[in-house]
Design goal:
The structure holds two protein chains of two kinds.
Chain A lengths: L17 E7 L8 E7 L5 E6 L12 H5 L14 E4 L2 E4 L2 H19 L4 E5 L5 H15 L4 E3 L6 H11 L17 E5 L3 H4 L4 H9 L3 E5 L12 E3 L6 H14 L5 H7 E2 L1 H8 L4 H8 L3 H13 L3 E5 L1 H4 L4 H14 L9 E4 L6 H6 L6 E2 L3 E2 L3 H11 L13 H10 L4 E5 L3 H4 L3 H10 L2 E6 L11 E4 L8 E4 L4 E5 L12 H11 L11 H12 L11 H7 L2 E2 L25 E2 L18 E6 L15 H6 L4 E4 L1 H6 L7 E5 L4 E8 L7 E5 L13 E4 L6 E2 L3 E7 L1
Parallel strand pairs in A: 6-7, 6-16, 8-9, 8-12, 9-10, 11-22, 12-13, 16-17, 17-18, 23-27, 24-26
Antiparallel strand pairs in A: 1-2, 2-3, 4-5, 4-18, 14-15, 19-20, 20-21, 23-30, 25-26, 25-30, 28-29
Helix pairs in contact in A: 3-19, 3-20, 4-13, 7-10, 7-11, 7-13, 10-11, 16-18
Chain B lengths: L2 E6 L8 H6 L12 E4 L8 E4 L8 H4 L27 H5 L6 E3 L4 E3 L5 H4 L6 H5 L5 E5 H17 L17 E4 L2
Parallel strand pairs in B: 1-7
Antiparallel strand pairs in B: 1-6, 2-3, 4-5
Classes of the chains: A alpha/beta, B alpha+beta.
Chain lengths: 707, 180
């Protein structure tokens, strides 16, 4: 098998005594192409070499990507299984750790029933592993309580797409087309910091005259280059989207033929946006009416436009509404299913797309099948070799699993590839939950804040010590290659899950010798589902620079552009929403008069468990801070660099102030990548979206005090 | 070397990938030799990258009493040779752009060498390879000329007059800089 892929004529620096292993970055959904440099003699990781010929990212990397390889042979790696004895972690053998897990799991399920165990998954791992986590929970443990960290990331986008298009693929178009678009409308995305390598596509389009409309409370590096920056109050996206829809309809920018032919519910939408005049919208959102009008005209006049959104719009208690409303801007303009136009969400996690399709969600089975659909249960049960009656029923969402812990329903948890002790809202509640558990197992390669609560920590491999596939934010299925053998005593997640399954007497359902065998089973499991991967093979991925799902057979070319003829709904038509605006879960009060919003910085990834350990990244941004406008600061007699206390109805924390005029005057922004006392998620509001169960990370009410 | 280093400051998104990548270059001893600065964070999030522009008659080399800074046949101004550098820091004071850095532990200067092991083979230096926003590029002369012409066109449309500033006469042919 070729490990190094390069197209003819592409020059890479190939040092003597080193080989290059072609793969992708471990971090966000861009999944930037890279080669990892490995010493031929010792097998050690030497560094990174740009992959100039990967068509999506062209060799570009952000600082996280450049330093990603430094995770692999990092001194903080967990080398052997850890068992907590008298409150302290003691290194142990795999035999001892797995025996303990076997004994505890059996004991707890014997005493409290199958559903006393739970699984908390993650999507920063390959499709093979994500698929197996779902199977592990349902077949090996037999519990209905499984959910994953995508609930804190992509679930509103998924919910919105399902509602509107009947199918959830994060991007309706391949991103190599973006440079040909005429207009980007981006809501709640600081893509320059959160998906930095995407910015080249926007610059290329802008060099040809494309316009950018950015919707964000802060003048981020993305908003800075926008033609119109709609600086809305956090939590008012649905009002702004309704306001833009109002103008698109009023000014005659609707592609009526497209709407009549391909969309339901236009009259209802028209009626519901009626009240959102620019003045009314401005009064809710705090954006000047002229800017809303200007944005609507730019967007309405652009022949090819792409509507994009990210966590800013999605991580709200109205996240699904926001997604459906922004998506319908593209529908009204007749943009979906055409060249260089459409709708896309910026997938946060490396495999946020693939990982959510294949059964880690409490109500989904592989191939985006519904657990509530008896046919789906029948099919997957057959693939797995179990009786349909054995299939557990749907469970609850990620945050709600902690309610079940507090209720005493869930007694033990297995956390795989996730760090909810940092990434959940209202984390003190989560910490209490972990303490209440009888038994907690965590798979990780660094001792995360979650792992610190564990009874057993199992050392897993990093992404470069295993092979498999991921699905990037376009929906393109790509290959991750193994650069080195697992270090220390670490094992891959799929090996660990298979071994636990074997100890619980379910080994015959997990007979895998390598990831490719899992992939082959997984292909069959997805066959006929909405997210159909059955025509994709490792060889095709190499040959074709990745394959876009759905791909129902090996002679099917894959589907770079979605919804060319019809949508994924039963009647093939897109459903336009008709939803008004509602206040976020928490509004400013006399006691908590300001709005707090949270987000990312370019130097860190998610809960920071990986990036906070990389010297370069840590040096650039060692601690969180409270960013605000100097006018707000002066009302509290505060200056740059001073310490303040932030309080919300849930908790308080102390932070340094960082002042900039490039933000709204009535908000405080804090990045969320840190744990314990530095975790802004102590403050955030667990108000959940009714459909996606996404917590409202992006808005809550806050009080500032100078220290 | 048939390529040109080309900077477009306003494209910079401040991600510092160029600095992380600079540390990755084989000869760079895991120390970055380039800079990314905020213009004024209080006013705006605009940042800009800066690196050695490989002067034609480089002040750093001229003021080096030990002749430690060598210039390649292509005109790349190399980092001081380890054996020769006496740690006097003349170069760090002499450079009009403040580019050379100083390692106080090793008592040696170090500076950008345009990743000479890459650029001599026309492979882009690490900073230009990874820069996500194309603020730093390693491109053909013709491509640079067309980019500059395009800029001039846009400036004319927007009513700005293109200006020639004297400081760029120090910059050699294989290093292009565009600035308003």
């Amino acid at each position: 098998m070729t490990e190094f892929l390069a197209k003819p004529g592409v020059k890479n620096l190939h040092n003597k005594g080193e080989k290059l292993i072609t793969t992708h970055c471990s971090y966000c959904g861009m999944q930037c192409g890279m080669h990892i440099r490995v010493s031929e003699r010792t097998g050690e990781i030497k560094g990174v070499e740009p992959r100039y010929d990967w068509p999506v990212t062209l060799g570009k990397l952000c600082p996280k990507g450049v330093t990603a390889y430094q995770q692999i042979d990092h001194p903080d790696r967990i080398k052997r299984p850890l068992i907590k004895k008298k409150g302290k972690f003691v290194e142990s053998s795999w035999e001892e750790a797995l025996s303990l897990i076997e004994r505890k799991f059996t004991e707890i399920q014997g005493k409290h029933g199958k559903d006393a165990l739970s699984v908390f998954g993650g999507v920063s791992m390959t499709n093979e592993k994500c698929y197996l986590v779902g199977k592990y929970a349902r077949v090996a443990l037999g519990t209905r309580f499984i959910d994953y960290n995508g609930r804190f990331c992509m679930s509103s986008a998924a919910g919105g797409f399902m509602k509107t298009f009947g199918l959830d693929r994060g991007s309706t178009l391949p991103w190599t087309e973006l440079e040909h678009s005429d207009c980007f409308l981006m809501a709640g995305s600081n893509t320059a910091e959160c998906h930095p390598t995407s910015i080249q596509m926007f610059w290329k389009a802008r060099d040809k005259g494309a316009k950018m409309i950015v919707i964000d409370p802060r003048e981020t590096p993305t908003a800075r280059i926008a033609d119109v920056h709609l600086d809305l109050k956090p939590g008012t996206d649905s009002a702004l989207a309704n306001g833009l829809l109002h103008l698109i309809i009023k000014e005659g920018y609707v592609d009526q033929e497209y709407v009549d032919e391909r969309c339901n519910n236009f009259e209802e939408l028209k009626a519901s946006v009626e009240e959102f005049t620019p003045e009314h919208t401005a009064s809710i959102t705090g954006v000047a009416p002229e800017k809303i009008i200007k944005a609507a005209h730019i967007y309405g006049r652009s022949p090819r436009s792409v509507v994009m959104f990210a966590r800013g719009a999605e991580q709200q208690s109205k996240g699904v509404d926001n997604v459906t409303l922004y998506s319908s801007l593209a529908l009204l303009r007749g943009q979906i299913g055409k060249f260089a136009s459409g709708v896309a969400t910026f997938t946060g996690q490396g495999n946020g797309q693939g990982g959510r399709e294949h059964g880690q969600k409490s109500d989904l089975l592989p191939g985006y099948r519904k657990l509530t659909d008896p046919e789906a249960v029948k099919y997957i049960s057959k693939v797995w070799g179990i009786a349909p009656e054995e299939m557990p029923k749907p469970g609850v969402s990620a945050y709600e699993m902690f309610d079940e812990i507090h209720n005493g329903t869930i007694k033990a948890m297995h956390v795989i590839c996730s760090n909810p002790a940092v990434s959940s809202p209202n984390v003190e509640y989560i910490w209490e939950g972990f303490k209440k558990l009888d038994f907690l197992v965590v798979n990780d390669f660094f001792l995360s804040e979650t792992a610190e609560f564990a009874d057993v920590v199992l050392p897993t491999t990093t992404w470069a010590e295993d092979e498999g596939t991921t699905t990037n934010l376009e929906g393109r299925v790509i290959r991750i290659r193994k650069a080195i053998e697992p270090l220390h005593e670490s094992k891959t997640d799929w090996q660990i899950l298979s071994e636990i399954a074997a100890r619980l007497g379910r080994g015959k359902y997990f007979p895998y010798k390598n990831p490719r065998e899992i992939f082959e089973e997984f292909r069959i499991a997805t066959k006929g589902g909405k997210a159909d991967y059955s025509g994709i093979t490792y060889e095709r991925i190499d040959k074709e620079d990745g394959v876009f799902w759905p791909c129902p057979s090996e002679d099917h070319p894959g589907t770079p552009t979605m919804f060319k003829e019809s949508f994924g709904t039963p009647d093939g038509k897109a459903n336009l929403p008709a939803v008004g605006w509602e206040e976020p879960g928490e509004v400013p009060t006399k006691e908590f008069p300001l709005r707090l919003t949270t987000g990312r910085v370019v130097f860190h990834y998610l809960s920071g468990n990986q990036t906070r350990r990389i010297d370069f990244l840590k040096d650039q941004c060692p601690e969180p801070y409270a960013e605000m406008h100097p006018e707000l600061a002066s009302q509290y007699n505060m200056s740059d660099g001073e310490m303040i206390r932030l309080s919300t109805p849930r908790s308080t924390m102390e932070l340094e102030v960082k002042l900039t005029k490039a933000t709204r005057k009535d908000i405080v922004f804090v990045p969320y990548h840190w744990g314990k006392e530095l975790s802004v998620n102590k403050l955030t509001n667990p108000s959940l979206d009714p459909v996606s169960r996404m917590p409202e990370f992006k808005v809550c009410s806050v009080k500032i005090e100078k220290l | 070397m048939n390529k040109i280093m080309y900077l477009e400051f306003e494209r910079c998104i401040g991600c510092r990938a160029c600095q992380a990548a600079c540390r990755e270059c084989g000869d760079h001893d895991a120390k970055e030799r380039n800079y990314v600065e905020h213009v004024d964070f209080m006013e705006s999030r605009q940042t800009f990258p800066m690196m050695c522009m490989q002067c034609k008659d480089p002040a750093c080399a001229r003021v080096c009493p030990a002749n430690a800074i060598q210039i390649t046949e292509e005109g790349v101004v190399l980092s001081a040779s380890e054996e020769k550098c006496i740690g006097c820091r003349n170069c760090t004071f002499g450079c009009p752009f403040g580019i050379p850095k100083f390692d106080f532990e090793a008592n040696k200067m170090y500076k950008c060498d345009m990743c000479y092991d890459r650029s001599k083979h026309d492979i882009a230096p690490m900073c230009a390879s990874v820069c996500p926003s194309d603020a730093i590029r390693f491109i053909d002369f013709d491509e640079m000329q067309s980019l500059r012409r395009r800029r001039t066109q846009l400036n004319l449309v927007e009513g700005k007059k293109p200006t020639e500033q004297d400081k760029w006469k120090y910059v050699p042919e294989f290093f292009g800089v565009y600035s308003d």
